[in-house]
Design brief:
There is one protein chain. The protein has 364 residues and is mainly alpha-helical. Helix 2 packs parallel to helix 9, helix 4 packs antiparallel against helix 6 and helix 6 crosses helix 8. It is globular and about 60 Å long.
Length: 364
């Protein structure tokens, strides 16, 4: 059973995050130290500098030759199931759009394993979690954050193509009944009806090429591949990184999550309410995070064949609160940042009791 000292370690890991958020909040709300443009610039720094260095550190320090294939498969199946379920829900609710899929995936499948997960899981499952949790963190940094960036860039490329060339149509006489966006939408629909299959393929290819160019220029892509290459060399031949390089990366990456949390506090201060997405979307976000995510991981783990402690670790880590990095990306691309900020804030508040409930249920 979890001891009081274990609870203390979890609280010790969580409280500094709230201190950072509170300082950022009062910097904008009370002291007016940062303008909105400066807040956006800070988040851009985090997305393009702090997060890539953090990803490199996580990936390069993981022994890729000793990873559990079953855990990898279960993690991939969970993401696939979440993607499928979200598409079905969005189609049924008639609330279409890639933005909602991105938001749903961020909430249900990308938990905060790096800060909160390590002390909490170690308190529950001791040394077993030390083996499994770094692998889950590795998969997040190596695969899923990059996949999330791909979806963000894809979403940005699709509205960019359908956006009207100018706003002159909507600003003309008051007798007009259609905005330029509506006119453009109808023109696009007409074009699509007359398109041949080869033309559609060409449009898709152009969009994918644009997305590919964006991802190639993204620092997180470089950090991922360099980190993977270094991990392959280090754990294969025992080659150590020079201390001057290692210390430089450590200093720069250690502030990554702190800066991400600071950006979260700045965003909260820029809104009229801390819970910016409203009560209904808050309930949806909490349901995705603490019910749908663990349920999908349980199904995926059982199907793949995870058993005993490995199964429990997989399910409980899925019930951890939403990670901060998805919020940074959502803020950078302006894709539902209000919902994700609420997910982080409330998720960390109720993370301990929720994790304990799952821990007790799985112990029966």
């Amino acid at each position: 059973m979890i001891s009081l000292i274990d609870v203390y370690h979890v609280v010790t890991a969580t409280v500094p995050l709230y201190v950072t958020m509170f300082l950022a909040y009062i910097c904008v709300k009370w002291w007016k130290l940062f303008t909105p443009d400066q807040c956006v610039g800070i988040n851009k720094f985090v997305a393009n500098f702090s997060v890539p260095l953090l990803s490199f550190q996580v990936i390069s320090s993981n022994n890729i030759y000793k990873m559990s294939l079953k855990l990898i498969y279960a993690d991939c199946v969970q993401k696939f199931l979440a993607f499928f379920v979200l598409i079905v829900i969005i189609k049924m609710s008639d609330r279409g759009g890639l933005k909602w899929i991105i938001t749903g995936l961020s909430l249900s499948t990308l938990p905060n394993t790096l800060i909160l997960g390590i002390p909490l899981m170690k308190a529950m499952y001791k040394d077993e979690s030390d083996i499994l949790l770094p692998q889950i963190i590795f998969l997040q940094s190596m695969i899923w954050y990059n996949f999330l960036l791909f979806l963000h860039e894809l979403d940005a490329a699709i509205p960019a193509r359908t956006m009207p060339a100018s706003s002159s149509t909507s600003s003309q006489g008051t007798g007009e009944s259609e905005t330029s966006l509506e006119v453009q939408s109808k023109e696009d629909e007409g074009e699509e009806r007359g398109e041949t299959r080869s033309q559609r393929k060409m449009r898709i290819l152009i969009i994918l090429m644009k997305v590919g160019k964006k991802l190639i220029m993204n620092p997180n892509t470089y950090a991922t591949f360099i980190g993977l290459i270094w991990a392959s060399i280090h754990f294969r031949w025992g080659v150590d990184m020079p201390d001057v390089v290692k210390q430089s990366i450590t200093i720069l990456s250690s502030g990554g999550l702190g800066m991400a949390t600071f950006s979260l506090g700045l965003f909260m201060a820029s809104n009229s309410s801390i819970i910016a997405c409203g009560p209904r979307m808050t309930m949806v976000a909490m349901g995705l995070k603490f019910l749908v995510g663990p349920a999908l991981m349980a199904v995926a783990s059982i199907v793949i064949g995870l058993r005993d402690t490995m199964l429990k670790v997989a399910i409980v880590q899925a019930a951890l609160p939403q990670g901060i990095v998805p919020f940074v990306f959502a803020r950078e691309y302006n894709v539902q940042p209000a919902i994700l900020s609420t997910g982080v804030l409330l998720g960390m508040l109720i993370a301990l009791p929720v994790a304990l409930i799952y821990y007790l249920l799985l112990s029966l």
